[in-house]
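Meet my pick.
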Amino acid sequence: QVQLVESGGGLVQAGSSVRLSCAASGRTVSSYTMGWFRQAPGKEREFVAGISWDRSTRYADSVKGRFTISRDNAKNTVYLQMNSLTPEDTAVYSCAIANFRDEYEYWGQGTQVTVSS
């Protein structure tokens, strides 16, 4: 049974930083692609950042230079460091883990990040 549990969200002011965590069980994060997604009210879920088994990363254009995805293999946890937050970053952030075909297969329940102006 694969489980992903996010933490670290909350209410912050514009310009501040937040680090989200995604603790995985049932699958080794270092062997699969992990990703962060977000969904704002009334909008579709969108890709934010991803990290592959070889630690290569990719980001949505809207977060490049501000967000950093990383992984701690010993803790089987993936992080999303978010800096210079703006109200447009307000959303529910969810992590996901892919399968061997690199298709996102399991999702966490999400954590709310609200950025006030």
In short: The two ends are 40 Å apart (CA to CA).
